[in-house]
Amino acid sequence: MMLGVYASAAAEVLATVSSPNRAINVAVQLADDGRLAYEIQRNGKPLIATSRLGFLLANAPQMDNGFTLASQAVSEHDDTWEQPWGERRYVRNHYKELRLELVQKALDNRRMALVFRVFDDGVGFRYEFPEQAQLPETRISDELTEFVVAPPAYAWWQQAGEQAALEYAIKKSPLSEVGMANTPLTIRTKDGTHIAFHEAALVDYASMWLRKVEGQKLRAHLTPSAFGPAVQRRGAFTTPWRTMQIADNAAGLYMSDLVLNLNEPNKLGDVTWVHPSKFVGVWWEMHLEKSTWGSGARHGATTANAKRYIDFAAQNGFRGVLVEGWNLGWDGNWSGSGSAFSFTEAYPDFDLAGVSAYAQQKGVRLIGHHETGGNIARYEEQMDAGYQLYAKLGVDSIKSGYVTDAGAALFPGADGAVHFGYTDSQEGSRHYLKAVTEAARYKLAIDTHEPIKDTGLRRTYPNWISREGARGMEYNAWGSPINSVDHEVNLVFTRMLSGPMDYTPGILSLEGVKGRPINSTQAKQLASFVVIYSPVVMAADLIENYEKYPGPFKFIKDVPTDWSDTRVLHGELGEYATIARKDRRSDDWYVGSVTDGNARVLSLPLTFLDPGKRYVAEIYRDGDHADYRTIRRFDIVIEKKNVTSKTVLQLKLAPGGGQAIRFTSQ
Amino acid sequence: MMLGVYASAAAEVLATVSSPNRAINVAVQLADDGRLAYEIQRNGKPLIATSRLGFLLANAPQMDNGFTLASQAVSEHDDTWEQPWGERRYVRNHYKELRLELVQKALDNRRMALVFRVFDDGVGFRYEFPEQAQLPETRISDELTEFVVAPPAYAWWQQAGEQAALEYAIKKSPLSEVGMANTPLTIRTKDGTHIAFHEAALVDYASMWLRKVEGQKLRAHLTPSAFGPAVQRRGAFTTPWRTMQIADNAAGLYMSDLVLNLNEPNKLGDVTWVHPSKFVGVWWEMHLEKSTWGSGARHGATTANAKRYIDFAAQNGFRGVLVEGWNLGWDGNWSGSGSAFSFTEAYPDFDLAGVSAYAQQKGVRLIGHHETGGNIARYEEQMDAGYQLYAKLGVDSIKSGYVTDAGAALFPGADGAVHFGYTDSQEGSRHYLKAVTEAARYKLAIDTHEPIKDTGLRRTYPNWISREGARGMEYNAWGSPINSVDHEVNLVFTRMLSGPMDYTPGILSLEGVKGRPINSTQAKQLASFVVIYSPVVMAADLIENYEKYPGPFKFIKDVPTDWSDTRVLHGELGEYATIARKDRRSDDWYVGSVTDGNARVLSLPLTFLDPGKRYVAEIYRDGDHADYRTIRRFDIVIEKKNVTSKTVLQLKLAPGGGQAIRFTSQ
C-alpha cells in the first residue's frame, strides 16, 4: 500500500491566469489531499494536461501534498529594457503574474510560494521558499514538476545524464520515445504548435533534465550532486524558472525573449568593457593535428605563431586573437584529476607579455584562455591569479574550458576530499557563475566551453559573453563522427533558444583531419555567421585558407556580431532556417539561410529593410551545381544587386548549402 | 569538447564464454582507450549489442576506461541444491563462469574484476571491487552498465523513480518508449525471444532502475541515496548480479531459477521454524471501511474480533491469523515522520497475550504485524523489542509494512538528523535485510510489505518468506483505480519472476468498497492461489463471504502453499497463464489458469501427472456464461472427473476468468 496512490484524485481549480493576449491560459489545481498541479490551454485547446508540482526533501517531509491556499494575487507587468549587446537592442517584457502563497498546515504551517508568469509567447513558473524556522535548510532530493504534453508530438532532443553533457547530436523522435533529455527540448505537436521546454536563471540550483515517465509525461530530474541531495540551500531561495516557450511555428520560438525576460536585470552596471567582436587564433590547427597544445617541436602556441595571427587579425579587422596551449600543463594527461594546469606560467617558447603588447600595438587584443581539464578545485585556487595576470596585460576576455572525461568535474569539498560531480550540478552552477562574477571584478568577459547550459544569465551578468554547450565545429575536425548535414538547422530551434553559442564557423577549406570533407558548402559556412548567434565569433579556419578564398572571406570580415534587431524569416525544425539581423552600429542588414541535406528555393521578401531606402545586396550563394556531397561544395557565386524593401529575392540553397547576404544602406 | 566523445571506438574482443548448451555466447570487448563492453548472441544471432560497463565514482577518477586485462579464467559449475520451501524442491545450478581481472594502470594499478555467469537460461554478471589502498572507500555516483537490445522488442514494465515504488500498473509499450523502469523488466523481441532484466543478491547497494537512453538502449540508474552518492562502501565488495533471463517464450522465463542460483546459499542453517501456510485475518474489513485500523467504536483489532477469526481459522485449517491495528499509533497521521507506532503496546481493547494464547490453544498462530509508516529510524529503535515480544508470545512470523507517501522513508542518520530516502536505496537495502537477519535470531519469518524489490535473497535468508512489492488485491478495495483485468497475467511474467508475492487472493465476494465489482470471476480468485506464488498466502475475504460460498471456499482450504515442483503449461505475456504445481507434502497436483479480458479455451494435456497413477480432478471452472463484466462473474461450476496423465482437459476460461483444479492421487 502506498498512500500517494490511495489518495483521491478529485481536484478543484485554485486559480487561473491568462497571457496578456488571452491566448494562453494557466489553471492551478489543488486536489482533495492538497496536491498541486497545473494545466495549460492555448486558444481554448489543452496543451499541457494536469501536471504535478512539488518536491521530495531529504531532510523533511515531502512538499507535494497537504497544501492549502493562504493568498493569491494577479498582477500585470509591461516594460521594455535595453540589452548592452544581443540579437536585438530592445526587449519587451510583458506578462501577467499569478502568485500563490501556500501552506502545509499539518507541517507546522510550512510555507512555499508558486509564481506563474504568462506571456503571449509562453509560460514560466518557479517555486519560492521563504525563510522559515520550520525549514532552515532545504535539501531537495527530487523535484516532482511535470510537463504532460496533451496533443501527440515529435521532439528534437539531446540526451542527458551521460558523459558528453551538452555535446550529443540532436535527435528527432516521437515525444513518447524521449528517454532523459537536456533542455531546451523542443517539440512540435500534431497541430503544429511548437513548445521549447527549458529553464531560466539557473543560479545555485541543479540543472533540470527532463525524464520521460510514460506516454508524453515528462518530469523534472535534477542533476545529481557529488555532495548529497541534488540541491541544498539555507534560508530563503527561489528555484530557476521552468519555462515553456510556445509558438505557432519554429520561427516564433526563436523570436521569443521569454527566457531573458525571466532573468534578473543587469547587476554589473556599465559593461562597455564587454566587446562583441570576431577573433581568429591558434586553435583549428591543433584540431587538424598540424600542431599540438602540448610543448615540443610542433607546439602551436609559440610567440612567432601568435604574432602571425596577430598580424593577420590586424590586417583583416579582427579584434581578437586566441592562443590555446600557451600555459604549462598541456603535456601528458591534462583532463580530470590528472590536470596540472598553471594559469600564470607560460611555456618557454611563448612570451605572454611580449605577445600581449605586440597585439595591443597592432590594435588587437589577445583572448585569454583557461583550460581547467574539469579540475574545478584546482582552478578555483588559481582563478584569481589567472584573472589578475590577464587584466594586467590588457586582455579583456577569456575563453575557459572544462574538458572532462565522463562529464564529471572535480569540485572542491569542505573536507579537502575529492568530489567528482556533474558540471550540470548545483555545485557546477555555483562554480560557473562564480567564474563570471569574479571575472567581472577585473572587467573580463567569459566565453565558457564545456559550460553549464545557458539559461539567460547573460542578462544579469553581461560579461558572460558566450558559451559552447553543443557540438561545435571541432567535431568536423575529429570525425567522431562529424556533424550531420542538418546540425545547424537543428541547433537553431533547440540549443540556440538558450543563448549565444561559440560555434567557430567559417571553415572555408570544408575539411577536417586527413582532408575529410565536412557536411557543408562554402556558402553555408558564411551563412552560419548570421544564423548561429554569438556576440563573440571565431573565424576558425587557418590563415592560409582565408588567403586562398578572398571572395567568401570578405563576408567574414564584414559581418558584425552585435545586432539591433533580429527576424526569423523562415524556419522548420531540422530542415532550414533563414534569419535577418540588423547591425547594431549601422543601418546594414545581414541575412543567413541554411538548409539540411535537401536543396530548396525559398522566397525572401525583403520587407524587413527600411522602406524607402536603397540597398546594395552582396549575395554569397551556392553555385548552381553546388552540393555538400561532392567537390562542388566549393561552388560559390558572389554577386551584387540593388534592392529595396519591396524586392523579393529567391534563395536557392544547394543540398547541405546556404546563403549569406549583406545589405548595405546607400 | 568532451574527451569521451573524441575517443576512438575501435575495440577488440577480450574474452568470450558460452552457456553449457552453447546457445548463449557472451563476448567482452576492450576498446583502444581501455573501455569495457559486452555483447550477447543467442543461437548465433545478436541479442544484446555492444553495451558499456563501468562506473562514475564520486571520490576518484571514473572506472570506465584505461583498463587492461590482468588475467582471465573460465570455469564450469554444476550442482543441484534443495530449497527449504519454494516452487520446486530441487534446483539445478549449471553455468560457465568467466572471470576477468582488470587493471587501470594510469591510476596506480587500480583493480576491478568482472564476472560473467552464463546459464542455458540466461546471463548474470557482476563487478567485484577488491580491497586496495588506491580505493579504500568506493563512492559510486553512477553505474554505467548498459543493456542495448538488438532486435526490435516490446516491453512489459513498471515505472521507477516515483512515489508508488513498486505499485504501479504494469504497462506494455515498444521498448523504445520505456522511460525509467523498475526491474524485472520483461521484453519480447520480434522473433519471440523473451528476456527479463533484473538483478540478483541486492545487498548493501542501491537498487538498479533501468533508464532508456535512446532507441533500445537501457542503462542502469542507481536509486539515489539520502546520504550522498548512490552507493558508498568501504573495502572489498561486489555489486549485485545484473541478470538477463532468456527464453524462447514466457513460460521459459518463469521456469528459470537463474536469480535464485546467483544468490548465496542458505546462511541460516536449520529453518524448519519457517512455516509455509495460509492465514486469514482482520485486514480486508478495514480496506472495505467496515472497521478501522485506528482506535474507537469501529476498531477492527479487538480481542473479540481476533478470536472470531481464530475460531474460523481453526475450524477451516488455516495456520495463521493476522490482526492489523492492534498496537498504539494508528490514530492520526501514521505515515512518514508523523508515525508514532509502538511495537509493544496494544490498544486497551486488544489483549495481545490473551489472543496469542487463545490462538495457540486452538492450534493457530497469531501473525505479527509491524507497520512502520516508513519511519525506519523509529522502527530500528524498537525493532528488537517488537521481535522479542512476539517471540515470547509464540508468534513465528511477522508481516511488516512501510506505508509511505512519496516513496520516501525516514532513515536514521549518524548525525541524528532527518534523512528521507527511497526504500529502494542502498540504505533501504541495508535496513530491509537487517530486519530479516535480526528476525532470524528470534526464529521469526518476515513478510515485507512496501518492500525493497525481491532479488532472490530468500535463498540466503529463507525466513524472508514473502513480500508485497506490486499492486495487491487491496487496490480492488480502494478503487484508485482497481486492478485491470490483465493484472494477474501481467504479474506472472514480470513481478513474479523476482520471487513470492503476498497478493491476498480469494475475494469470493468479488467486490471492493461500496460494492464496486472487481475485474475477476470467482474461479479466477481460486486460480490465483496457484498462479501467484507465495509460501504464505492470506485468504483475504471476510468470514461471512467464505461462509456464503462454501463450494469455492473448499479449494481455498485445500490448496497448499509449498511445492515440490512447478510447471508453466501455458503463458503469454499479458494474456494468460496456466501453472501446475505439485504439493510438497503429498502426491497431489494443483493447476491454476487465468486469462485477461478475453475468453479462451486452452488444451491441457495432463502429462505432468505421474504416469500410471489415477487421479480425481476437482475442477472449479467458470460457468458457461461467466463474465467478469456482469453479475455472471459469480458463475462457477464445481465438478469431479477421473483422470490420468493421458487425459487432455479443455480449460474454458471466461472473460476475466480462470480455472482451478486439484488432482488427488488415488
Descriptive account of the structure:
2 copies of one chain form a homodimer. By secondary structure, chain A is of the alpha+beta class. Among the domains of chain A are: 12-262, Beta-galactosidase, Chain A, domain 5 (Distorted Sandwich); 593-665, Sandwich (Immunoglobulin-like). In chain A, the strands form 7 sheets. In chain A, strands 6, 7, 8, 9, 12, 13, 15, 16, 20 and 21 form a 10-stranded antiparallel sheet that branches. An 8-stranded antiparallel sheet of chain A has the order 1-2-3-4-11-18-17-14, with no helix packed on it. Chain A has a 7-stranded parallel sheet with strand order 29-28-25-24-23-22-30. In chain A, β17 (208-214) and β18 (217-222) form a beta hairpin. In chain A, α5 (303-316) packs parallel to α6 (352-361). The longest helix of chain A is centred in the middle third of the chain and has 17 residues, at 376-392. The N and C termini of chain A lie far apart (77 Å). The relative contact order of chain A is 0.10. Residues 4-8 of chain A have low confidence and may be disordered. At the A-B interface, α1, β13, β17, β27 and α9 of A face α1, β13, β17, β27 and α9 of B.
